[in-house]
Protein backbone atom coordinates (compact mmCIF):
# COMPACT_ATOMS: atom_id res chain seq x y z
CA UNK A 1 0.00 0.00 0.00
CA UNK A 2 2.84 2.39 0.85
CA UNK A 3 4.48 1.63 -2.48
CA UNK A 4 1.34 2.68 -4.36
CA UNK A 5 1.15 5.98 -2.43
CA UNK A 6 4.80 6.68 -3.13
CA UNK A 7 4.21 6.19 -6.85
CA UNK A 8 1.16 8.46 -6.86
CA UNK A 9 2.84 11.32 -4.98
CA UNK A 10 4.43 12.96 -8.09
CA UNK A 11 1.12 12.55 -9.88
CA UNK A 12 -0.51 14.75 -7.23
CA UNK A 13 1.70 17.69 -8.27
CA UNK A 14 0.89 17.12 -11.92
CA UNK A 15 -2.85 17.13 -11.18
CA UNK A 16 -2.45 20.35 -9.16
CA UNK A 17 -0.62 22.07 -12.02
CA UNK A 18 -3.30 20.95 -14.49
CA UNK A 19 -6.09 22.27 -12.28
CA UNK A 20 -4.33 25.62 -11.94
CA UNK A 21 -3.99 25.80 -15.72
CA UNK A 22 -7.69 25.03 -16.18
CA UNK A 23 -8.63 27.76 -13.71
CA UNK A 24 -6.39 30.27 -15.44
CA UNK A 25 -7.79 29.52 -18.89
CA UNK A 26 -11.39 29.52 -17.65
CA UNK A 27 -10.93 33.09 -16.39
CA UNK A 28 -9.23 34.25 -19.61
CA UNK A 29 -11.59 32.64 -22.14
CA UNK A 30 -14.58 35.05 -21.70
CA UNK A 31 -12.30 37.99 -22.51
CA UNK A 32 -11.43 36.43 -25.84
CA UNK A 33 -15.08 35.69 -26.61
CA UNK A 34 -16.07 39.38 -26.66
CA UNK A 35 -16.02 40.94 -30.11
CA UNK A 36 -13.47 43.69 -30.61
CA UNK A 37 -14.67 46.81 -32.37
CA UNK A 38 -11.99 49.24 -33.40
CA UNK A 39 -13.95 51.05 -36.04
CA UNK A 40 -15.38 54.36 -34.83
CA UNK A 41 -19.05 55.13 -35.35
CA UNK A 42 -19.20 58.38 -37.35
CA UNK A 43 -22.76 59.24 -36.28
CA UNK A 44 -22.01 58.74 -32.60
CA UNK A 45 -18.79 60.74 -32.88
CA UNK A 46 -20.61 63.63 -34.55
CA UNK A 47 -23.35 63.58 -31.90
CA UNK A 48 -20.73 63.55 -29.15
CA UNK A 49 -18.91 66.51 -30.72
CA UNK A 50 -22.17 68.47 -31.00
CA UNK A 51 -23.05 67.74 -27.38
CA UNK A 52 -19.54 68.73 -26.30
CA UNK A 53 -19.80 72.02 -28.18
CA UNK A 54 -23.22 72.75 -26.65
CA UNK A 55 -21.77 72.04 -23.21
CA UNK A 56 -18.84 74.35 -23.84
CA UNK A 57 -21.21 77.09 -25.00
CA UNK A 58 -23.37 76.63 -21.89
CA UNK A 59 -20.33 76.90 -19.64
CA UNK A 60 -19.11 80.00 -21.46
CA UNK A 61 -22.31 81.94 -20.71
CA UNK A 62 -22.53 84.16 -17.65
CA UNK A 63 -25.83 82.78 -16.41
CA UNK A 64 -27.25 79.29 -15.88
CA UNK A 65 -29.87 78.17 -18.42
CA UNK A 66 -33.39 79.29 -17.61
CA UNK A 67 -36.57 77.24 -18.03
CA UNK A 68 -37.27 78.42 -21.59
CA UNK A 69 -33.79 77.45 -22.80
CA UNK A 70 -34.08 74.05 -21.18
CA UNK A 71 -37.52 73.41 -22.70
CA UNK A 72 -36.25 74.38 -26.16
CA UNK A 73 -33.80 71.49 -26.05
CA UNK A 74 -36.61 68.95 -25.53
CA UNK A 75 -39.16 70.36 -28.03
CA UNK A 76 -37.90 68.20 -30.88
CA UNK A 77 -39.32 65.10 -29.23
CA UNK A 78 -36.36 64.43 -26.97
CA UNK A 79 -36.70 62.55 -23.72
CA UNK A 80 -34.81 65.12 -21.70
CA UNK A 81 -32.29 67.91 -22.24
CA UNK A 82 -29.28 65.64 -21.94
CA UNK A 83 -30.36 62.52 -23.79
CA UNK A 84 -32.38 64.16 -26.54
CA UNK A 85 -33.72 61.57 -28.98
CA UNK A 86 -30.93 59.08 -28.35
CA UNK A 87 -32.32 55.64 -27.56
CA UNK A 88 -35.93 56.73 -28.14
CA UNK A 89 -36.71 53.69 -30.32
CA UNK A 90 -35.15 51.24 -27.85
CA UNK A 91 -36.99 52.67 -24.84
CA UNK A 92 -39.78 50.50 -23.49
CA UNK A 93 -43.17 52.22 -23.59
CA UNK A 94 -46.75 50.89 -23.44
CA UNK A 95 -47.12 51.50 -27.17
CA UNK A 96 -44.24 49.19 -28.14
CA UNK A 97 -44.47 46.56 -25.43
CA UNK A 98 -48.00 45.22 -25.84
CA UNK A 99 -46.91 41.65 -26.55
CA UNK A 100 -44.88 41.26 -23.37
CA UNK A 101 -46.58 40.12 -20.17
CA UNK A 102 -46.81 42.72 -17.45
CA UNK A 103 -45.37 42.20 -14.01
CA UNK A 104 -48.83 42.52 -12.52
CA UNK A 105 -50.20 39.69 -14.67
CA UNK A 106 -47.19 37.53 -13.82
CA UNK A 107 -47.67 38.04 -10.09
CA UNK A 108 -51.40 37.36 -10.32
CA UNK A 109 -50.71 34.15 -12.23
CA UNK A 110 -48.15 33.01 -9.66
CA UNK A 111 -50.53 33.78 -6.78
CA UNK A 112 -53.32 31.84 -8.48
CA UNK A 113 -51.03 28.83 -8.91
CA UNK A 114 -50.07 28.98 -5.22
CA UNK A 115 -53.72 29.23 -4.19
CA UNK A 116 -54.61 26.27 -6.39
CA UNK A 117 -51.84 24.17 -4.83
CA UNK A 118 -52.91 25.17 -1.32
CA UNK A 119 -56.48 24.16 -2.10
CA UNK A 120 -57.96 27.65 -1.71
What's the quick description here?
The chain is an all-alpha fold. Helix content is 62%, strand content 0%. The protein is flat.
The helix/strand series, from N terminus to C terminus, equals HHHH
The best one-word shape is flat
- Taking all Cα atoms into account, the compactness measure Rg is 30 Å
Count of alpha and pi helical runs: 4
Strand content: under 5%
In percent, how helical is the residue content?
55-70%
Which blocks of ≥5 consecutive residues have pLDDT under 50?
A: none
How far the N terminus sits from the C terminus, by CA atoms, comes to 64 Å
Largest sheet: none
Average pLDDT rating: 80
The computed structural class is mainly alpha
What is the strand tally?
A: 0
Written description of the protein model:
It is a single chain. The protein has 120 residues and is an all-alpha fold. Helices cover 62% and strands 0% of the residues. It is built from four helices and no strands. The protein has helices at residues 2-33, 42-60, 67-74, 103-118. The radius of gyration is 30 Å and the shape is flat.
What is the topology?
Layout: H1 2-33, H2 42-60, H3 67-74, H4 103-118
Observed structural traits:
single chain; 120 residues; mainly alpha; 4 helices
Amino acid sequence: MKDVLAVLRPLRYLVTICLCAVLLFSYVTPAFAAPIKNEPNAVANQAAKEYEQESRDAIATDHPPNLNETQKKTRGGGLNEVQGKAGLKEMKRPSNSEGTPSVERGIKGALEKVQDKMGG
